[in-house]
Amino acid sequence: MMTDAPPGPSKTALVTGAAGFIGANVSAALLDRGYSVIGVDNLNDYYDVALKQYRLDGLTGRPGFSFNTLDLANQPAVDEVFEAHPIDLVVHLAAQAGVRYSLQNPDAYIRSNVLGFQSIVENCRYHQPEHLVFASSSSVYGNNNAEWFSETDNTDTPVSLYAATKKSNELVGHSYAKLYGIAMTGLRFFTVYGPAGRPDMAYFDFTRAILENEPIRVFNRGQLMRDFTYIDDILAGVIAACEAPPKDQDVPFRILNLGNNEPVALGYFIETLEQLLGKEAIKEYVDMQPGDVYKTAANIDAARHLLHYHPTTRIEEGLGKFVDWYRAYYE
């Protein structure tokens, strides 16, 4: 839980994707810091809506929190939210996530990630909040061959539609920051995990399968690495970013990596889960899936310098906390 002092006189934050994994945690942290929080989410059924409601239940009833169910691609509905409230901070975390699903339902990604983002930046253009913070993704780096992925690396070759939509957000955001002076920070998240996370992600699905004696598919025959980043570390970075907007007078825009700076081999990740669960996984070694990348590795020097961002949670500790939550929630 964030324990730093509140920001002084109460400010209002709009958090999109407030029923999502990161969005619910960010909403709670902002409430802890004295913000009033307007949460919005379309509560779609991409994964279990009951889990989204579980996250919302931790926010509903808290002083200063209100919630609206709406689709961000419906710009008139978004306009109404901005017109009804003086909004100081926008934290845009809503998106259609997932690489595999983008192969099956590309329209959902264009609607949510492109049109939804456009609704947000257009309203920021007219209502001028102090800062817009939005979620990008490590997926924009594609199959980067560098040892560490840095914000200055070329990101012109995304390997999935999901990555392409996130890259488009960065480009559109930069143009709006330049044209209209909107202070804006894009955060490239690296494989965020933890309690009440997304069921479509490997750590969640592997846990379910191992406990139910079902096989897990090990892509690229295990030759993958991921910079797994625990939710508390991401949360500290997001809050620090929210309260330190870019100061550049010409283009008040920046992109920052938020990762753990410690890539983990898929094989070790699975071994750690097996030890925590006390069961061996039934493994099916398969080829690389379309749209996936071989490695993610966050260079976080910029976030360290600008935000004093210092992730501390190792994979063994973070997965342990997730497994404890999973057993309590499902069993």
TrEMBL record:
Recorded superkingdom: Bacteria
Every NAD-dependent epimerase/dehydratase domain range: 13-248
Keyword hit for NAD: yes
InterPro entries: Epimerase_deHydtase, NAD(P)-bd_dom_sf
The keyword NAD is assigned to this record: yes
Coiled-coil region: none
Keywords per UniProt: NAD
Gene3D superfamilies assigned: NAD(P)-binding Rossmann-like Domain
Pfam families per record: Epimerase (PF01370)
Descriptive protein name: NAD-dependent epimerase/dehydratase
